[in-house]
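Record ABC-2 type transport system ATP-binding protein, 309 aa.
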Amino acid sequence: MITVHGLTKQYGAVRAVDDLTFDVLPGKVTGFLGPNGAGKSTTMRMVLGLDRPTRGRALVGGRPVAGMAEPLHAVGALLDAGAVHPGRSGRDHLRVAARTHGIPPRRVDEVVDQVGLGPAAKRRVRGYSLGMRQRLGIATALLGDPGVLLFDEPMNGLDLEGVRWIRALVRRLAGEGRTVLLSSHLMSEMEQTADHLVIIGRGRLIADASLADVVRGGAVGQRVRVRTPSAGLLADALRRRGLRVSPADDGDLLVDGAAAETVGDVALAAGAAVHRLAEERSSLEQVYLDLTDTDVEYRVADEPAAVRS
Ligand SMILES: Nc1ncnc2c1ncn2[C@@H]1O[C@H](COP(=O)(O)OP(=O)(O)OP(=O)(O)O)[C@@H](O)[C@H]1O
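=>
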């Protein structure tokens, strides 16, 4: 588990992280989202003990990483895939990291297999593609078999196969009960990968909720689109049930906050034929753009509609 409490980082006049409080729980993939410069990397660096907080604390398993003798056993991270000696082979890089942490050399072969680096592990890192560097970085993160993993933009610059591979890997790591914090700009990827989201903007917390709650709390929320040749009749019947109905550009009716079953039942009772009935949700991308649009700080509460204050 990662615990962040009142975490603040001031760089001169810039407050990169501003009083952040959230927990990252085991057994889930937590997506860490925010626009450029929101403070995601700074937060991750403080969690890893690579940067000192100005105020507040960031703990892994209840302890600061900076005080740990062999941190690779507690937490693994992929921060900057370029940060490897280019003249070393991938395997040598892993061997050095293993030796400094008292990790047996056979573990190097295990992680090389696990990330699919294969024969490339014997080649110098200088000649690695971005995808191979990412795999090596992830192998390093996994070396100490840690319970907590942080991946900063691991999908950046990867091809579709690489993105799919990372998605499957983080899901598997969370499935094993590990704590996984994953930052990404790719909302569509996050939608397919994360269970929970922590969204920040200008260093401050914007949302800390399950993916489902964040999407449900969006501006559109749940909405039913219905196509009928008796639009007037059905709209009247739905309004009598207290539902908000508006016409779409193509003549369909849009019914806010209703389930498809309700709209279907009302149509049957009113004698209106239904030619199409579909539930619509906000996409994460749309909700995210809405959320990060302002500086208003709020939490997505249990109440799905309670988004903005
Ligand atoms: N070492 C530093 N010195 C001064 N300012 C810094 C330093 N590191 C980060 N910042 C500033 O802190 C803010 C947050 O940066 P950070 O890299 O944490 O954001 P981010 O959310 O990771 O952004 P991105 O998605 O672009 O990587 C930015 O305004 C950045 O310019």
